[in-house]
Write a structure and sequence with these properties.
Layout: H1 8-20, E1 23-29, E2 36-45, E3 51-56, H2 60-67, E4 70-75, E5 88-97, H3 102-115, E6 128-141, E7 147-151, H4 152-155
Antiparallel strand pairs: 1-2, 1-4, 2-3, 3-6, 4-5, 5-6, 6-7
Length: 158
Amino acid sequence: NPIRETTAEAISLARKLIDDAHFVSLAVIDPETGAPYVSRVAVATDEVGTPIILVSALARHTQGLLKNPLCSLLLGEPGKGDPLAHPRITLACLAQPVIGDALLLTSITERFLQHQPKAKLYAALPDFSFFRLDIENAWLNGGFGRAFILSAENIGWR
C-alpha cells in the first residue's frame, strides 16, 4: 500500500499548502453535459482554514456548483525541476454559498481581500459571490513516496 499513516508532518504540510494557495484548480460537474469541468479560481481561507472562493454567477464553474455542490480542488505549485516531485493536495469539498449572515460575509470579504487584493476590482459586482468549500477529505502527495489520505476530522477541519 503506497498510502502512509497520517503524521503531524503530513497535517502540517496539508495546512501550509492550503493556507499558502492563491489560485487553485477547481473541478465541478458541468451542468450541461455532466462531464468533469476544471477551471482556475482565486482562493483564500476563512478563520478556521476552510477554502473560500469568489466567483461570478456567469461562470460555468459557478453554475456547476449551484447544480451539484460536490467539487474538488488541486493545490500546490511546482518549483524547479520535476513538477511531480513537489507537494500537492487534492481536496474533496462540498460548496456552500455564503449568504444571509452579514457578519460572516463581512469577515470573509475582509480575509479574502487581504489574501487577494486585486479582487477588490470585482468583489462588489452584483454577479460575484463567495462560496465556502467545506472539506470532506484530502489526498496529499508530499513528494515521491509520501502519499497520505487525510480526513477532515484528523486535520481539525470539523
